[in-house]
């Protein structure tokens, strides 16, 4: 039985506590939050113990693993404390406020021999998993463009970062995950319309090493929530609706008749069939925590490690810099995981 704890039980942390309480062979031993009433309420719901000081949770409950869902500015301090106390850690995205802090966390995890996983939850969307399998099998042919739309109303809970770090990091990680490629150049237009301190709208482009164009449309200004991903290639276009976990394929009819031959591209693109893929839907957070606990039990690398978190943060920082300076940013080559 793995003993689990949650540090920070706000909008996201409370759901981690709920899922841990539902998992077999996991015992939610405690939650910590400086708002004692909030911590006590979650602890009562899921039969753990409430702490107002996370250090007491680590020292008294001695969890095997913890989720850390505190404000981003506190990630480095709390993650390193939990790792040093002997815990395996899942930290909510973004991994840290700065790349330097992120590497400090990674180094700490390696020194103490504990798992450090980053909560890029969109990877665990059931529709994304099916899409990833289709792309890996080459069913789309050559990929031309990946477009991400992540729109919605302003969240009052977010006070320490802007829309790029809070929302766009989902899509920056997703772009790397589904293509297996790294970015070489980014360009961003940003505006600050409602948020008092940070950008709340992003129109961004990311050029990947193999020529794929990534496009990000992200804001906190849209009254209704939209979460969509499209991948366009030789044989048509995939569409993922993250809100419903649905996956559609819009076929290029010309490519179909030519059996995906290169010559079909010379004849252009025309509308073919629309296929809705069967997707076995599940809660992405549960899938994420099951993957985390499996990595802990089996002593295997987590599916989203610290270096993945750094890569997404690095791109987010480049987009913010591009928006401030009004120019494209060429990125230095990304250091592979095994050589950093």
Explain what the structure shows:
The chain is α/β, with parallel strands linked by helices. The protein has ten helices and 15 strands. Strands 14-13-12-11-7-10-9-8-15 form a nine-stranded mixed sheet. Helix 1 (13-22) packs parallel to helix 2 and helix 5 packs antiparallel against helix 10 (306-325). It starts with a strand and ends in a 10-residue tail after the last strand. The mean pLDDT is 92.
Q: Notable features of this structure?
A:
2 domains, Dihydrodipicolinate Reductase, domain 2, Rossmann fold, 10 helices, six-stranded parallel β-sheet, nine-stranded mixed β-sheet
Order of helices and strands: EHEHEHEHEHEHEHEEEEEEHEHHE
Radius of gyration (CA) equals: 21 Å
Number of domains: 2
Determine the mean pLDDT. 92
CATH architecture of the largest domain: 2-Layer Sandwich
The assigned structural class equals alpha/beta
Strand order of the largest sheet: 14-13-12-11-7-10-9-8-15
Looking at the structure, the CATH topology of the largest domain is Dihydrodipicolinate Reductase, domain 2
The share of residues in helices is 25-40%
- Spatial separation of the terminal alpha carbons: 34 Å
Number of helices: 10
Question: What is the number of beta strands?
Answer: 15
The main sheet comes to: 9 strands, mixed
Can you tell me the CATH superfamily of the largest domain? Answer: Dihydrodipicolinate Reductase, domain 2
Question: What spatial form do the alpha-carbon principal axes imply?
Answer: globular
Flag low-confidence runs: none
**Given this structure, which CATH class of the largest domain is correct?**
Alpha Beta
Strand fraction equals: 25-35%
